[in-house]
Design a protein that fits this description.
The structure is a single chain. The chain is of the alpha/beta class and 306 residues long. It has one domain: TIM Barrel (Alpha-Beta Barrel). Helices cover 50% and strands 13% of the residues. It has helices at 3-16, 28-41, 51-56, 59-72, 87-96, 110-125, 155-165, 191-200, 215-223, 236-245, 254-270, 277-299, and strands spanning 20-24, 46-49, 78-84, 100-103, 130-135, 169-172, 205-207, 247-252. The protein has an eight-stranded parallel barrel with strand order 1-2-3-4-5-6-7-8, surrounded by ten helices. Helix 9 (215-223) runs parallel beside helix 11 (254-270). The chain is globular and about 60 Å long.
Length: 306
């Protein structure tokens, strides 16, 4: 799905009041699970690779694997680079077949973020590739120092940023963070800020760091030897309200990792004699697929493919 087709899909989502789900694939089992969920839900789907994933598996291999899995299920995913770290990484992803790319210059000063983003947008648009950028800062990214109050996105700056860069979609900082430990206290989103940005910006808005946290999955992980305490994520009401206020893409990664890990630990813990990885990885894959299906229903994308 190229830039024009994805733009049209977002236009539909906006008119009909739903959001696209982006699901990060960590390996073959994740890709299979996401594709299967998309087929069963008849949902459009974005399958993403982060820079860490592309260190584990290069962009060309990742793209070829996802495409082969998708072809086997007659699914047509959008392949997306998540948090691209510069023109070289973006160019490699595009060359490998990614049709949507995010460049993340959110840690740069405002004017520098505009300049570097605009350069990458021009490069991508010449190849009919959809673009995303980030303004403000969604914390919790791998390797960065935690901050209690990362800067949120200012509506006026968002308007200027989109106008000067020509970016196709904008990731905004409104209270979430990446990883399993998103909030101190009750989960919170600045819903009024989402609405204010949506009033001034005419491109799709993206919510990063938006995984929920399944308490049962955490309990299972800990029961079978894990140590995850105090994790928190978004609740269903916040998802629905964020979409109502203008969010059109919601990124999910940690929630899938937790589903995978819970099923894997339980399978190994309940049968310590198992040695066939197809057995326990298959169970974990099924858990990821069910998590993706539930999220597609929640976002309203089920039944929207085609």
């Amino acid at each position: 799905m190229n830039r024009d087709e994805l733009t049209n899909l977002y236009t539909r989502a906006s008119a009909e009041g739903w959001a696209l789900g982006q699901f990060n694939a960590e390996n073959l089992e994740f890709a299979q699970a996401i594709v299967r969920a998309a087929r069963e839900e008849r949902s459009p789907v974005i399958i993403a690779a982060s820079p860490k994933t592309l260190e584990y598996l290069d962009a060309a291999t990742f793209a070829a694997t996802v495409q082969e899995v998708a072809n086997s299920e007659s699914v047509h995913p959008i392949l997306h680079l998540d948090h691209g770290e510069g023109e070289q990484m973006v160019a490699s992803a595009i060359a490998a077949g990614f049709t949507s790319v995010m460049y993340d210059g959110s840690s740069l000063p405002f004017e520098e973020n505009i300049r570097t983003t605009a350069e990458i947008v021009r490069y991508a648009h010449e190849r009919n590739v959809f673009t995303e950028a980030e303004l403000g800062h969604v914390g919790g990214k791998p390797g960065e120092q935690a901050t209690l109050e990362p800067p949120l996105t200012e509506p006026a700056e968002a308007e200027e940023f989109v106008a000067k860069t020509g970016v196709d979609s904008l990731a905004i900082a409104v209270g979430t963070s990446h990883g399993a430990y998103k909030f101190q206290g009750e989960p919170y989103l600045d819903l009024n800020r989402i609405a204010a940005i949506a009033e001034r910006v005419q491109v799709p808005l993206v919510l990063h760091g938006a995984s929920g946290v399944d308490i049962e999955a955490i309990s299972t992980i800990n029961r079978y030897g894990g140590e995850i305490e105090g994790a928190s994520g978004l609740g269903e009401d916040l998802y629905r309200e964020a979409i109502r206020r203008g969010i059109r893409k919601i990124n999910v990664a940690t929630e899938l990792r937790l589903a995978f890990l819970a099923a894997l630990r339980q399978a190994l813990g309940e049968d310590p004699r198992v040695i066939d990885p197809r057995t326990y990885l298959g169970v974990a894959r099924n858990a990821v697929s069910e998590a993706v299906r539930a999220k597609m229903k929640l976002l309203g994308s089920s039944g929207r493919a085609g």
